[in-house]
Specification:
Length: 541
């Protein structure tokens, strides 16, 4: 019997024992993830789902960093493959935009938030010419009363970081796999990206509340396709005057995992209520970024950055997967109890340390660490990402885990490539890609407001099975992560108009050959992003 057959036999035996176990017995607990049959050796998936970064914003000159004195130094490994970035052609100094791209220094990590709404992002792309970013999505000015555009005004949108600031991301790309052709499933902001990660679609939403829905739901109706940010209806900590819920009967990846008895969780910073068991729940925890505090000079304190952001939580739009009162878990992490698979991000680190990591984990950092310009920055983000990745690599889970680091939207930051349009849309009010009211010709019976693929986003894949120093050029998108989970655990597609049926596969990022030399453990310094040490399977740090 080969190794795969042994795994499948163990999975069947465990499932049978679980099914016949007496209530209250040891076997009444869900089967361990290690014994659930999977297509690959991957038994755990961890998705670190960050905020608002385009591919060129982080990788415009990869793998070449400026390396000024006093900043973390980055030097590429020999034979690093070429990425599709601003080093392609003469885009760094002969760019078609009204402002030229420029390097944001390590000391300029905190910046203004850009315009990343559904329509302006299409206008910036300008029929594929990619030449209207300062006019369409660029935002300058001040935040916390301090200039956050460093004198560039709307031209700030053309700024990019290199390996002296996003050092951890570049080091992960060096030692594992990344994509230079991964996109948002649609144009639009955070809620759009979150729902596409959870379900591959933003259709079928109903909005309640008295304020205007313009720019939120396609055509401004009370029901339809989500194109903007709006808080979920099943969440006590929603703060807006209008809320959205997904039509009853619609499902997401969490429902598929529940149906198959596979453990999973959504972990988000600030999720734990700050008013105890009193209802409704209050998510009042805040954090301070020393970097942002040091950068601001106006005397306006940015200390009160609320940790939890309701519209970043995709599973609270669905009644089946919501935890509206932010109830704490009463059973094993990843199983169905009063928490309904939703937890504070601190629970993730404890689950890793205690050996209770669910099979699938979606993770959203608290606001000061999620990379969102205005309330976060690449250096605070780096602290969070490396802390989680280091914890996994130092745990029992390293041997069978795939970590995906990616983003919900581009924030409107410049990226030079337009990806394929797989969902055409003819929304007379909101689409502007091909012409006023047009993102191509919408198929009969299709939902409007789903123009995409949207902007390119970073995607890093970290695993002992990841190809080393590898760049994948195949077209993939946010719903490709859903597809990987579905295919790895043998789940059905979500159905309806979910993009998971169209999504490109992520299996090409991995080498599952038993005889392959697997990727090493790379432990990074959370402050600098530099490699502290690495360990290959041949032994030795």
């Amino acid at each position: 019997m080969n190794l795969r057959s042994l795994r499948e036999f163990a999975s069947l035996l465990t499932a049978l024992t679980f099914a016949i176990g007496a209530p209250g017995s040891l076997w009444a607990q869900p089967p361990n993830s290690d014994y659930v049959a999977t297509k690959t050796p991957i038994k755990h998936v961890v998705v670190l789902f960050q905020e608002n970064v385009s591919f060129d914003h982080y990788f415009a000159t990869y793998p070449y960093a400026t390396n000024p004195k006093g900043e973390p130094q980055f030097h590429a490994e020999p034979h690093t493959p070429r990425a599709n970035n601003l080093l392609s052609g003469s885009l760094l100094d002969e760019n078609p935009n009204s402002s030229q791209p420029f390097r944001l220094d390590h000391s300029q990590a905190w910046t203004c938030d850009q315009n990343h709404a559904y329509t302006p992002e299409q206008e910036a792309v300008d029929h594929g010419l990619m030449d209207k970013f300062p006019e369409s999505t660029g935002t300058g000015g001040t935040d916390f009363g301090t200039e956050c555009d460093y004198g560039h005004g709307t031209g700030l949108v053309m700024g990019y970081y290199d390996g002296n600031t996003v050092t951890a991301m570049w080091n992960y790309a060096q030692h594992y796999a990344m994509s230079d052709n991964f996109s948002g499933t649609m144009f639009g902001p955070s809620s759009v990206g979150a729902l596409n990660l959870a379900a591959g679609t933003t259709s079928g939403l109903t909005v309640t509340g008295t304020s205007s829905t313009s720019g939120t739901i396609s055509n401004g109706d009370q029901t339809g396709t989500l194109i903007g940010d709006i808080d979920p209806g099943f969440d006590d900590c929603s703060t807006s005057s209008k809320h959205a819920t997904v039509t009853n009967g619609s499902i997401n990846i969490g429902v598929l995992l529940n149906n198959a008895g596979i453990t999973w969780g959504w972990f988000q910073g600030g999720f734990n209520p700050t008013n105890g068991t009193t209802l409704p729940a209050v998510c009042g925890s805040t954090s301070t970024s020393p970097l942002i505090l040091a950068t601001t000079t106006s005397g306006v304190s940015p200390e009160a950055v609320t940790d939890y952001v309701s519209h970043h939580n995709p599973f609270d739009y669905y009644s089946a997967t919501a935890n509206p009162h932010h109830l704490l878990p009463t059973g094993p992490i990843g199983t169905t109890d009063q928490a309904n698979h939703q937890y504070d991000d601190s629970v993730l680190l404890k689950a890793i340390a205690d050996g209770n990591l669910p099979a699938v984990s979606f993770v959203k950092a608290k606001a000061i660490q999620n990379a969102h310009p205005g309330n976060s920055d690449p250096l605070d983000e780096q602290t969070w990402l490396t802390t989680v990745v280091n914890a996994i690599e130092n745990s029992q889970y390293w041997s069978d885990t795939a970590i995906f680091i990616t983003y919900d939207d581009s924030d409107g930051w410049y990226d030079h490539q337009m990806d394929s349009i797989v969902n055409q849309s003819s929304d007379p009010k909101d689409d502007e890609l091909a012409a006023p009211g047009s993102c191509g010709t919408q198929p009969a019976g299709a939902n409007p407001g789903r123009c995409g693929y949207g902007p390119r986003l970073p995607l890093i894949v970290i695993s002992r099975y990841a190809k080393v120093n590898y760049i994948d050029h195949r077209i993939t998108d946010q719903s490709s992560i859903i597809r990987f989970i579905e295919d790895n655990w043998g789940l059905p597609r979500i159905g309806g108009d979910s993009n998971d049926v169209k999504a490109g596969s992520l299996f090409g990022f991995f080498d599952f050959d038993d005889h392959a030399q697997h990727a090493p453990e790379i432990i990074l310094n959370p402050s600098s992003g530099l490699v502290i040490f690495s360990k290959s399977e041949e032994g030795g740090w």
